[in-house]
Amino acid sequence: MNPTNTGRGLGWLALIWCAAWCADLVAAWRFAPYDRLGVVAALGWVAALVVAARASSRLARGWLVAGGLLSFVGVAGELNVAQHGALALMAAAVAGGGSRAWWLLLLAPGWMPVLGWALRSAGPEVVHSLRLLAGVAAAGLAWHWSRAR
Amino acid sequence: MNHRASLYWWIGAGVLMLAALVWRFAPLPDASDRLAGVTARPGQRLQEMPFATWETEYFGAARARRWQAMDPVSRVVATVVDGSGNRRAVHDPGFCFRGAGWTVAAEAVLALPHGEARRVTLRRDAEELEAVYWFSDGRRAYASPVRYWVDTTLRRLTLGRSGPEPVLVLLVPARGRTADWAGWLRRWPVFTEL
Q1: What are residue B142's DSSP bridge partners?
Q2: Of A69, A142, A146, B61, which sees the most CB atoms within 10 A?
Q3: What tens digit of pLDDT does each residue of A31-67 get?
Q4: Which residues does residue B120 pair with via DSSP β-bridges, in sequence order?
Q5: Does the CB of B98 have a partner CB in chain A at under 8 Å?
Q6: Is the dihedral of CA A70, A71, A72, A78 positive or negative?
Q7: What is the pTM of this model?
Q8: Distance from CA of A30 to the nearest CA of B (A)
Q9: Do A78 and B16 make contact, defined as CB atoms within 8 angstroms?
């Protein structure tokens, strides 16, 4: 077995594990007033992740370890924000680290409910706008990265 | 990554996932005794109120009870939620109010015997309402949802050794927009002792 493929296989397994524990996001995007348009941010973000992951041949182990530890806290501690953060960190790992990983981490809050909670005083319209912006930015990055491959 | 190192990474990942599952599903004592101990004093009456179907579905495995607490001076609806079985059922009340279309027009701190509660004045169109809420583990009471998340996460990571599960206590007037909260809290220590 090619060790590089094994490493990336582990990264994808970890990503799927983290994504499975984030299934609560679907209900949040559908029903929570501050989380609407989170799905738009998520779609753009996933597109960027897919492009970045396909272009990378390595697994960034630092992000993998950080994501694994945060995932443990989130799953064992039943803490949603930790589970969402772990998913973002695993995406950074699969994207191979570097600047693309940082972009994914920067835009990840666009789909996270914690963004709505943090900006609750600003009102849902501001939060929706930020989520839309994050989704568009991520989609733009996906397009840009796909042309740069 | 060579073969042996790759194997160690896979084993490490497997152990971490297994440990997370063990911790997640380890049974912990809940606060059902505390919820069951809510009783009225002479001259007071507690009328238990049912939850709507959507509320019951929302709570899931969390335990919750709601009463109309009546005494000669006031009527207050008191809801207590124990998130031991489903911590996600307990949200920041301030956030939930905003999500339901209320604006938080004012906030104030109310002193409790073992800590503090938060009183919020809510507005929605022409409506105005006051609500009081706090989290309590029976020893300490506080209104910070961040502290609640830290306490409950720590409790689960330590398999219950860090202390009892905090419950959420939420009060709203049954009639009118406000109540004498300080007086009510003195008359109903069964809630401040939760």
Answers
A1: B135
A2: A142
A3: 999 999 999 999 999 999 999 999 998 899 999 999 9
A4: B107, B131
A5: yes
A6: positive
A7: 0.92
A8: 13
A9: no
